Amino acid sequence: MEIVTRPSQDEDELLPARSGCTIEDHVIAGNVEEFRKDFISRIWLTYREEFPQIEGSALTTDCGWGCTLRTGQMLLAQGLILHFLGRAWTWPDALNIENSDSESWTSNTVKKFTASFEASLSGERELKTPTISLKEKIERYSDDREMQNEIYHRKIISWFGDSPLALFGLHQLIEYGKKSGKKAGDWYGPAVVAHILRKAVEEARHPDLKGITIYVAQDCTVYSSDVIDKQCTSMASDNTNDKAVIILVPVRLGGERTNADYLDFVKGILSLEYCVGIIGGKPKQSYYFAGFQDDSLIYMDPHYCQSFVDVSIKDFPLETFHCPSPKKMSFRKMDPSCTIGFYCRNVQDFKRASEEITKMLKISSKEKYPLFTFVNGHSRDYDFTSTTTSEEDLFSEDEKKRIKRFSTEEFVLL
């Protein structure tokens, strides 16, 4: 996603929220209203409080420690939106969300939100929630397709609910994290979250999710045969049962600080139709990067502590799962540790994506070697241990070594 407007000197500022704001005419791939609708339609997962207690702890909130899990959820949610609803889908009510309290969405408020586990946050921010029932919304839809889209929209959000039964909810992700030595209240880096998401999708027992899988790159290398093996449900040559795949690539964009030479690389990645975003952030805060404007990154911020929403009820409110105001951050503030995500619908789509991404990597790389690579064959052909894991062990020994190296270099969250 790319939007080009008048450059600004302000950091972490809110991008214009309405078409009536002063904006330059040059907007890539559509007008500002279309950009805003596309952005708001993405699923926004933030800190929550007062949810069911996390097993093995006394915690009923993830405020102050769960932001990377939330940004990982947002990336996965975007992949599922593409999978079930398609890239052209937008939420019909996106432009109806009120943005009446934008002053409470400043960086100072964010710091206040995350200052203490025990801070009373319930009254800090309230979105105006239209009292429109699901039945009334469905009656407004012009055809069965729109109604079906609304059903899947709600279903996807419910998979990320903050309850022990939600397939990709915080409770489940923490359970999978325990097998890598993590627990509720710990900080999680982008590389660790990538593997937790892989395990969560592999273990999801839902008929709608049989057609999608996740592959995590090894040492910044995507082994094409390993990806295709995960996509193919049988040995048939017609590939009619190909699975979609979300490819997650943990990388570092420099040493202690992000190397400015990688700006073109990040912008190139975010411009690709296959990209579903980046799990990243700046030191001590994780963000979900969804696009760019000039030399700044557009992101969704999980650092708002909202009240628990019971997604098991038939007509749960959707408004707090959609962010009304995009924000941006200078690229130079980006932490070097991040995980990049791509979505491919089938094997042929993966082959096209690998070719396009490889071309982009060569063009944008100012170094002798690209930041990550696609290679033919299996990892075992290059003397790597297979990444297949048993249910008792989240990571193979090889993966544990790689994750330990990534984890020691990743940023520490508040």
Task: Please characterize this protein's 3D structure.
With 414 residues, this protein is an alpha/beta fold. Helices cover 31% and strands 14% of the residues. It has helices at residues 32-41, 67-84, 107-113, 134-140, 144-159, 170-178, 190-203, 224-231, 263-271, 347-364, 397-409; strands spanning 48-49, 212-216, 221-223, 244-252, 275-282, 285-293, 296-300, 306-307, 327-330, 337-344, 373-375. A seven-stranded mixed sheet has the order 2-4-10-5-6-7-9, with helices on both faces. Strands 1-8 form a two-stranded parallel sheet. Strands 3-11 form a two-stranded parallel sheet.
Radius of gyration, whole Å: 20 Å
Oligomeric grouping of the chains: single chain
Secondary structural class: alpha/beta
Distance between the termini: 29 Å
User: How confident overall, as mean pLDDT?
Assistant: 79
Which percent band covers the strand fraction?
5-15%
Please tag this protein with its features.
alpha/beta; seven-stranded mixed beta sheet; two-stranded parallel ribbon; 11 helices; 11 strands; globular; disordered C terminus; Autophagy related 4C cysteine peptidase
